[in-house]
Automatic annotation (TrEMBL):
Signal peptide: none annotated. Pfam families: MDMPI_N. This is TIGR03084 family protein. It comes from Actinoplanes philippinensis. Gene3D superfamilies: dinb family like domain. InterPro entries: DinB/YfiT-like, Maleyloyr_isom, MDMPI_metal-binding. Residues 10-143 form the Mycothiol-dependent maleylpyruvate isomerase metal-binding domain. GO terms for molecular function: metal ion binding.
Length: 247
C-alpha cells in the first residue's frame, strides 16, 4: 500500500475537491455530471450520504444504512438515497463539508484492528479510508470533467492503484474464475515508478497510474489507455480490474 498516511491523504483528496466546489456558480450545480442521471449536486449528495454512513457504522450509533433494503443492487440503493434527498447545491456542499470531516475523525479514532460494517464486507478503518479516497477521486472526475475544470493526478493515486490490484482476486471470483497472481508496474504522476503486487507474478499490467486507476474506477476503457498487460491472465485482469470496497 502507499507509504504515506491514508487518513492524511483522504483529507487532502477531499480538500482538493472542496477547493473546486467552493468556486462553483448556481448553474454549475445543475449541470449533468459524468455519472449517468446525476447532476453535479447529486454526485456531492451521494458523497455526503456515504460519509455520514461511515460515521454511523464506525461509531455504531444511529441507524447505519441498510443498503440491501433500498434496491436490488448497491447502485440502485445509492440512486434511491440520492433521489430521496435531492436539494440545493450550496446546502449540499455544507452537508458534505461537515460529513467528510466527521467521517475522517471517526476513522482516525477507530480501533485499527477492528473491522466495521460496510456495503459488501466488513473493512478495517484504514481499508475503509482507502475506499473513501478512491470514491472521492472518482466522483471528483465526474464533477470536474463535465465542467472543464482541471483536477490533476497526484501521488495519492497510489492508494487507488493498491485498492484495484489488491481486490483483483475478488473480481476474478465474481466472474467465476480462480484468482490469478497479478502485479503492476505503474508510472506515477511525477514520473517515478510504482511496483505493486507479488514480484513473482507472471501477469503484469504496466503503464500510467492514472490510466490504471481510471480503468479500475470504470471511468476509462482499457482500449482507450496506453496500459500494457502481459502474461497468462493479462486480458482477463485488465477486463476485470475494479476499485472494489472489499478487504
Amino acid at each position: 500500500m502507499a507509504h504515506s498516511d491514508v487518513f492524511d491523504d483522504l483529507e487532502a483528496e477531499q480538500q482538493q475537491l472542496e477547493t473546486v466546489l467552493a468556486g462553483l456558480g448556481p448553474d454549475d450545480w445543475t449541470t449533468p455530471s459524468a455519472a449517468a442521471g446525476w447532476t453535479i449536486a447529486d454526485v456531492l449528495l451521494h458523497l455526503a450520504q456515504t460519509e455520514e454512513a461511515v460515521t454511523a457504522t464506525v461509531g455504531e450509533h444511529g441507524d447505519p444504512v441498510r443498503w440491501h433494503e433500498l434496491g436490488a443492487t448497491v447502485d440502485e440503493a445509492m440512486g434511491a438515497l440520492v433521489e430521496a434527498e435531492r436539494g440545493d447545491g450550496p446546502r449540499i456542499l455544507d452537508r458534505w463539508r461537515a460529513a467528510r470531516r466527521e467521517a475522517v475523525a471517526a476513522l482516525r479514532s477507530a480501533d485499527p484492528d477492528q473491522a466495521v460494517r460496510w456495503v459488501a464486507t466488513p473493512l478495517k478503518p484504514r481499508t475503509l479510508a482507502t475506499t473513501r479516497l478512491a470514491e472521492h477521486w472518482a466522483h471528483a472526475l465526474d464533477i470536474t470533467v463535465p465542467l472543464g475544470v482541471d483536477y490533476p493526478d497526484t501521488a495519492r493515486l497510489r492508494h487507488v492503484a493498491w485498492l484495484g490490484l489488491s481486490t483483483l482476486p475478488y473480481a476474478f471470483r465474481l466472474a467465476g474464475l480462480p484468482p490469478a497472481p497479478v502485479r503492476a508496474g505503474l508510472t506515477a504522476p511525477d514520473g517515478t515508478s510504482w511496483q505493486l503486487g507479488d514480484p513473482a507474478a507472471e501477469t503484469v499490467i504496466s503503464g500510467p497510474a492514472g490510466d490504471f486507476c481510471r480503468v479500475g474506477a470504470q471511468r476509462l476503457a482499457p482500449a482507450d489507455t496506453t496500459l500494457r498487460a502481459t502474461g497468462p491472465h493479462a486480458a482477463t485482469a485488465l477486463r476485470l480490474l475494479r476499485n472494489y470496497a472489499v478487504s
